[in-house]
Specification:
5449_t:CDS:1, 2 helices, 50 residues, mainly alpha
Length: 50
């Protein structure tokens, strides 16, 4: 769970990079979202196999 000040691509990139730093290079197999466009774009570029 994370609290972000906004839902921009930059914020999601920071969030996903922070998560990878915390868990290592393990990529998530599944991610539930609310279909936010910025998050979807970031997932596609940051975690292409998710």
């Amino acid at each position: 769970m994370a609290i972000l000040s906004d839902e921009t691509k930059d914020s999601f990139e920071w969030l996903f990079q922070s998560l990878l730093n915390a868990i290592g290079e393990l990529m998530p197999y599944l991610l539930y979202t609310d279909s936010d466009l910025a998050m979807v774009m970031t997932v596609n570029s940051s975690w292409p196999k998710t």
